[in-house]
Amino acid sequence: MRRRKDFIKNRRSILMFIGTTHGIGLTTFAISLANYLSSYERKRTCYVEMNDGTEAITMESDETVLFENTVGFTLNDLDFFPNADEDDLSCIRKMDYDFILIDAGVRPIESIPQNEFDRLFIIGSLRPWKKSSYYAFVNEMKNLETDILQGEFFGTLLLKNEKKAFENKFSIAIKELPLLHDPFRLSQNDINFMKKLMVL
Q1: What pLDDT was estimated at residue 59?
Q2: Could you say which DSSP state residue 129 is in?
Q3: Which has the closest alpha carbon to 152: 38, 46, 12, 33?
Q4: Which residues pair with 120 in a beta bridge?
Q5: Residue 7: pLDDT band with limits 50, 70, 90
Q6: Rounded to whole angstroms, what are the CA distances from 155 to 20, 72, 121?
Q7: Predicted local distance difference test score (pLDDT) of residue 70
Q8: pTM higher than the cut 0.70
Q9: Selection from 99, 92, 100, 168 nearest residue 135 by Cα
């Protein structure tokens, strides 16, 4: 993973999103950030869906995006590539994007591509019914020689005692992910969060 820098100014940044379990807001977060970069920072941005889900393909689009053998669509000036594979990603890398956001979904740690991203966002929940999957993910990650430890950790609906217990156990800082309602209608608080996130 490359050294941290001001990612708004960086010419080409690849951001990857990994979930520790399903139903924790990973896709909403990834699309919200993609929309922020496209709509508010005016950066040429695409969202690449490389997970087991097919949420993106069900959205109504404005137009089709076609490059070599890779097909996507545009919605609100943001390009989407649903159900993408490694060959699609290779094609997308050749396109003129400032930001490529990859929704890698929930997957085993060993299948997460190494050194193919500038920033990695790890999303989970510390709610009692989801906490075990987050703890298992971090425990497994710590047992492997991996760059994933340099990722940024987020929890949805994070309580102070949950945050403290997680940070004490793993010596890893975890940030609270705001409750994002609609990726295409960001509130001022959402915008402020995204802006701060992208200049860290």
Answers
A1: 64
A2: T
A3: 33
A4: 16
A5: very low
A6: 10, 30, 11
A7: 85
A8: yes
A9: 168
